Structure formats: C-alpha cells, structure tokens
C-alpha cells in the first residue's frame, strides 16, 4: 500500500496504517531532525512534535499530496518553531542576565549560585513554574496548561518567585 493510501486510511481511523507509516519513516525523519538540530535530545523532542502534528493534521491530508514531502514539511516547520522558541528563550535569559549585570555585578554571580530545586524559601509551585519558564523555556500559556491554572496566575507565580530570589540575592550580597 502506498504512503498516501496509508495516510488516508489513518485519517479514517485505521491505527495500523499509522503504525506502518511510522515504521517506514521514523528513522528517516529522526535522521533529518538530528541533522538539522545536532542534538539528540532536541531531535527526540521535535520528533514527538512532528508526530503529534501529523496526528492533528491527519484529516487535512489529501491523497494528491505526496506523503513524504508533506511529512518533511511538517518536520521542517517543527524544527523552525523549536529553534525560534529556543532563540527567544536564550534572548530572554541573555537580556535578564545583562539587566542583572548592569544593575549589580555581584547580583549575577549570586543568582548563578542558586539551584531552583533547592530553594526552600520558594513554594513547590514557584519552583515548578520557574523551572518550566527558565529551564524549559515555556510561555506563560504553556505553564498554565501544565500546571492547570490561568495564564495570569502562572505569570504571577513566576513574578513572585523572581521577587523572592531578588530579595535573597540582595540579602546574600
């Protein structure tokens, strides 16, 4: 059966058609992602995103569209989204660090000494939110979804945690 017919069958609910497509192309797609990202963990993360997008877009698929170019377009777009997200996160952290350096050189070194998981002064929700925001680079909307709260609340939790950390850094310095 062709990839295109398998994709149509999958769009109509045939899970074994998906399994066949996955087995046929998983190595090729992962190789593409690894080649673009040069990082196995990132490639694995984007690999999962590709198949989630394939699943959510399955009903939009048309047989006249060749499957491989279609799935590689999804893959390419997932790589672009991942890189943009990573660049935005890096710029945010860089600008925050630059802001700290401009305000107080010792404050930056004190901040780098903190391990978010070990800060007993923060609540577990604050530690989790900070980790999601700064370690994983999630948006406030994504944090809200993961913590099952509102976007406004997730923003407040992160803001309050940062204020606590700043207060600790001033006390430490």
Automatic annotation (TrEMBL):
InterPro entries: RNA_pol_sigma-70-like (IPR039425), RNA_pol_sigma-70_dom (IPR014284), RNA_pol_sigma70_r2 (IPR007627), RNA_pol_sigma70_r4 (IPR007630), RNA_pol_sigma_r2 (IPR013325), RNA_pol_sigma_r3/r4-like (IPR013324), WH-like_DNA-bd_sf (IPR036388). Belongs to the sigma-70 factor family. ECF subfamily. Signal peptide: none annotated. GO terms for molecular function: DNA binding; sigma factor activity. Keywords: DNA-binding, Sigma factor, Transcription, Transcription regulation. GO terms for biological process: DNA-templated transcription initiation. It holds the Pfam family Sigma70_r4. The lineage of its organism: Bacteria, Pseudomonadati, Pseudomonadota, Gammaproteobacteria, Vibrionales. Residues 21-86, 119-166 form the RNA polymerase sigma-70 region domain. The keyword Transcription regulation applies. This is RNA polymerase sigma factor. It comes from Vibrio albus.
